[in-house]
Amino acid sequence: MFRSILTAGVLTILGSVVGCSPKTSEHELLNVSYDPTRELYAAINPAFVKDQASKGKQVSVNTVHGGSGAQAGSVINGQKADVVTLALGGDIDAIARTGIINPDWQKRLESNSSPYTSTIVFVVRDGNPKNIRDWDDLVRDDVKVITPDPKTSGGARWNFLAAWGYVTLHKKKGDNEATEFVTRLYQNVLKLDTGARGSTDTFIKGKQGDVFLSWENEAFLVKKLSKEKLQIVYPSVSILAEPPVAVVDRVVDEKKTRALAEAYLQFLYTDAAQEIIAAHGYRPINAEIRKKHAKAEADIPLFTLKDVVGSWDQANERFFADRAIFDQIYRKKGS
Amino acid sequence: MGAKVYRALPGFRLSLGFALMYMSLLVLIPLAGCVIKASSMTWDDFWITVTDEHAVAAYKLSFSVALIAGLINAVFGLLAAWVLVRYDFPGRKLLDGLVDLPLALPTAVAGLTFRTLFISDGWYGKYLGFLEPEGSVGHWFGPHGWFGRNVATLDVRAHDGPFAIVLVLVFVGIPFVIRSLQPVLAEFEAELEEAAAILGASRWQTFRHVILPALLPAWLTGFALAYARGLGEYGSVIFVASNIPGETQIPPLIIVKQLQQFKYEQAAAIAIVLLFFSLLTLLFINLLERWSRRYDPAR
Crossing angle for the helix pair B53-86 and B212-232, nearest 10 degrees? Predict the structure, then answer.
């Protein structure tokens, strides 16, 4: 009996070791992406495969999704991603700090390596019963807000920075006013989900909250999928969210997939891909395609991360690190 | 004399070696890794991380909701195990099978289901308005109610508050109590109860002095397992709780947040504190269990 248990144990261990050995192929790409891009890459990957087939190459692309920070963490811990397409540059910077991606990654492709952009908008219930028009309405006492936790969600960091930028850049007030504004805003938050999809679910299925701070692309998707009628409200000003992409240097050199990985990211900038991007509610960087799809109401002034705080390192240090401004919000409440 | 002890199964050394290797590979080495990771930070950093206001609030929350859920499970688990073992009724086998369901169900699904049921217009939630802070019972526990003013303010909302966490923890923990008690109850000789009755014991005396002492060790084990499960539960809790730092944020979520910021040492530090307290409480429960076996001749 024990022999059989031992045999079983040894087989299990052997099996897992064998199973772990990576299947490397020069014709296979792994794209590690963030949460809301599921539908986008589900459409782009077949288009890329077809494009390569027309050039006589048989390739395949897999994309895995998850919270942006968690995905960056898994690449740092050895996941063999050929390319990363994440929610914020800070997460790719974190990978670059370990040497897995070259430090110059953001300069390698057009428009800061972001083939598409997005912004932060408000999703409200049908008829906008609480009459939510702009950022100031979010700090009203009678408004309940749904947004994910900036500590766990990339999208939520953009939300926070958009609110901050509204006070410091649009209203031209100081940091004290901005701190007070975000404090009041987050005191109106009913639930801090860990990711954008969790918040979407809380807002639609959980029916909690009056307004959901969301990626513009996610807002379109939510509106389409929700049984309940929803409305998208564009505030007077918001942030230009630039989700960047990069080739994972160490992995592509090891797997000899650099040419294919670079072709994949280049493909995102082609007209064909930019059309798909626009169809999924992202903002293509190609001005003509953008113009063709954009609605007039969406044409609001956008400030950038650089305008608000400079860089992701500075943003994390000032706002999202332990005991930084975001943490302070929930401390004041207790005292 | 050199009398050789014969065992029913051969190969003691081999199996002991295998058990030790297995435990080391799967339990001890990962735990040691956690400690090593945390030991790379300075003592000050460690202390600041683990005594952070939000972290302390999270430990308190987790240990209290797990305790309450464990106690609820202890009571209702005993009842359920009793019914399942002692009575025969149509559908007993089915009910018995259902007991294991919380173990097999992904806890995130449980969390989502509970949330859907308990939100204000959910199947249960629409009848539970009285638990809301402005409702009749909720007000009683609030800062202006009698209980709130004289004892402590409690958040008894059935959704997204601490009470909601207790509800899901009851769900994930119940099989442990039932499954620990069932075999003991099944083995329990009915003759002992009959003897007690013949000797003039009332029903309560029979339960208190005959049944309970025999059940106590298994009962405590079941409680400890359910309690430990509640401490570690993540998937279902983050769906039902509002996850507000300092209020409804559980320690595993703090760990996830630290990982998200690539702060592996800080995450390990919180994990170690959690482990330490879990070990301490489990040790205490084990001592209780040993004490409860003090009359057991087979000990």
Answer: 140
Tens digit of pLDDT for each residue in B22-79?
A: 888 888 888 888 888 888 889 998 999 999 989 999 999 999 999 999 999 999 999 9
Taking CB atoms and an 8 Å limit, are A316 and B262 in contact across chains? Answer: no
CB contact under 8 A, A206 and B119: yes
Q: What is residue A166's DSSP assignment?
A: I
Q: Is the CB of B261 less than 8 angstroms away from the CB of A72?
A: no
Q: What is the rounded CA–CA span in Å between residue A156 and residue A69?
A: 12
Residue of chain A minimizing CA distance to B25:
A13
Please give the Cα distance from A217 to A223 (Å, whole number).
10
Listed in sequence order, the DSSP H helices in B126-249 are 136-141, 146-150, 162-187, 190-198, 203-206, 212-232, 235-240
What is the CA A14 to chain-centroid distance, rounded?
A: 38
Whole-model pTM over 0.90: no
Residue A164 near residue A157 (C-beta atoms within 8 A) = no
Residue B160 sits at the vertex; the CA angle it makes with B158 and B165, to the nearest 5 degrees, is: 75
Cα A196–Cα A200–Cα A204 angle in degrees, nearest 5: 175
Nearest to B111 by CA among B241, B228, B226, B247: B241
Asked whether A105 and A113 are in contact (CB, 8 A), the reply is yes
Q: What is the pLDDT of residues B191-245, one digit of tens each?
A: 888 888 899 888 888 888 888 888 888 999 999 999 999 998 998 998 888 888 8
Q: Do B245 and A327 touch (CB under 8 A)?
A: yes
What residues of chain B have any CB closer than 8 angstroms to a CB in chain A?
Answer: 9-11, 14-15, 18, 22, 49, 52-54, 112, 115-116, 119-121, 160, 238-239, 242-247, 253, 256-257, 259-263, 266
Residue type, B127: Y
- Alpha-carbon distance of A314 to A128, in angstroms, equals 36
> How far is it, in rounded angstroms, from Cα B19 to Cα B28?
12
Q: Quote the DSSP letter at residue B6.
A: P
